[in-house]
Amino acid sequence: MIEDGNLDPTSGVALYRRMLRLRRFEERVVELLDANEIAAHAHEYVGQEAVAVGVSASLRADDVVTSTHRGHGHVLAKGADMAAMFAELMGRESGCNRGRGGSMHIADLSAGIYGANGIVGAGAPIACGAARRFRDSGQDRVAVPFFGDGAMNQGVLLESLNVAAIWRLPVVFVCENNLYAITSPISEMAAGELYERAAGFGLASEAVDGMDVLAVREAAERLIERARRGEGAGFLECRTYRFSGHFTAERGRDFGYRTAAEIEDWRRRDPLDVQARRLDGEEAWGTADRAAISAEVAAEVEAAVAQARAAPWPEPATARDHMYARTYPGLPAGPRG
Amino acid sequence: MTREIGYLEALNEALLAEMARDESIVLIGENIRGGFRPEAMGIEEAFGANRIIDMPISEAAMTGIATGQALAGGRPVVHFQVSSLIFPAFDQLVNQAAKLPLMLGGQGHIAATYLVMGCGASGGRAGQHSDSPHAYLVHAGIKSVAPATPGDAKGLLISALREPDPVAVFVPAVAGAIRGPVEAAADPIPLGQGVVRRAGGDVTIVAVGQMVADALDVAEALAGEGIEALVWDPRSLLPLDRDGLAAAVAATGRVVLFDDTARTCGIAAELAATIAERCHGSLKAPLRRVTRADVTLPYSAPLEAEVLPGRGHLEAAVREVVAWVPGSSSVPG
Hints:
With about 325 residues, chain A is α/β, with parallel strands linked by helices.
């Protein structure tokens, strides 16, 4: 269930609010990492919010997404529960995955989220399989694999583009081109334009300003509804930027692959500001108060953190649970048999 | 009613029966329609084109598609034409299908079956078409069975098709030449239950998958000399019938493991470790392993014979174990 407060979910204000939720969530995640309340590291979604929100705004609750290592935004935008997400990151039993997945594997099957994924490109065929199942069983559901520019060089993703084309699957591939595969610039890593590759497979393919939530939503809606009608798979390249490093471990370090000026240029295109300026110019905030929205979101985040903190840790004796839906004597084995 | 039919025909019977029983089952593979594969005969005619899906040559996507189908409520059967083709799909098998259930924390399960055809050598197919890759998937935690006979092929595939988890079914490369008695009814053989193929009191041969037939031949030959070998077939590698294994070992106290997977960290290595942990008191001699050598399978016939676990190797190992008395060398001869 996507949280919009009291707003009309189709409004531009609601899109702004959704992006703000992603932003504040991610900022809080970094604080909790610094406080050792969340383990390891996180791949921040800050800067790319327009993509997850714009695409998800065109999806139904029963549509399916697969996500990436940088997945918090997709998962939250598709409708996962914020408190369950914090609980998952904190390793708690009440987490989306009962504390078994963590940041790179958050999933909520009940919300159509087949999971963030730690392997670049790996979600694409999974989304295609779901789409094939939907089509073959007469359901008009759509599957959207999110992935980055780096994934465009994974064989399995190219295999998936081909399959989606020859089977005319209800799939829309969403490529978040944030210009860098970790530290490697796309100009050195990828030949040609990414969306043209998909066009080469015969997919309906577009490139869009990934910093503008309305532009993303409009393009996504075109492609998603087309796919839903059985007219074939689509591909949407969203040109975007991550304001932070590849992951939290990069903070405070400068690996020199991006200039401060480049980052500053992109920050001036912050998707939250782009949408806020649009709403200001159109005086479209209506009765909504920007400060009130901000306070609501901050309160939601704090309540979710408090709920997660209060949640119990998993029982150590359950560490082998869920490996199999059906177990056998000795399976799965433990450290001593 | 029992008839004598071929191994691939038995697989086909299992697929047809289960696909009729469970309409969520879909067969997906390369070159799978149109009669090229005996195990897939009649499926399109019986169930339509949406239940038998021909893939482009894209093993990774094929395996990931199956995971997506399974998460969306389907029950895919992924057909790998040759065992070595699991390697292009390895990420989707190991990082995705095998790991997702636990990582999802019980939100869903992946009911997928991997029909891994062409396991082992069959003469001259060389390095990239002769693998016995069982241990790779067992190591990844994928439930695995290695049916040796047509009857087991049918019964174990039926069980795999009713299991709520990924299951690999390893089919011998020589399956086309294997015939045997098969029940006409679609009766499952449970995972995790081995079987005594031949009774004997002098030595126990534990034979895996395609090695079972050779083990039985060697046992018959040795019987002529008064050596009676018990032949035990685990059938299921994960879960493994540890109690059945221990009983088979205890029956003679002398053990030879006969397995076509790699010597190092292969299936026989796991069996040996299990025996060492559980059967110390019943062993009368050091156990012996006869496995594939730890090299890529060479093409030329005399070289191939040298590195595969053969009847000659087995016979020598059995004689050595039977003759062993305290004080003999514990190093394989």
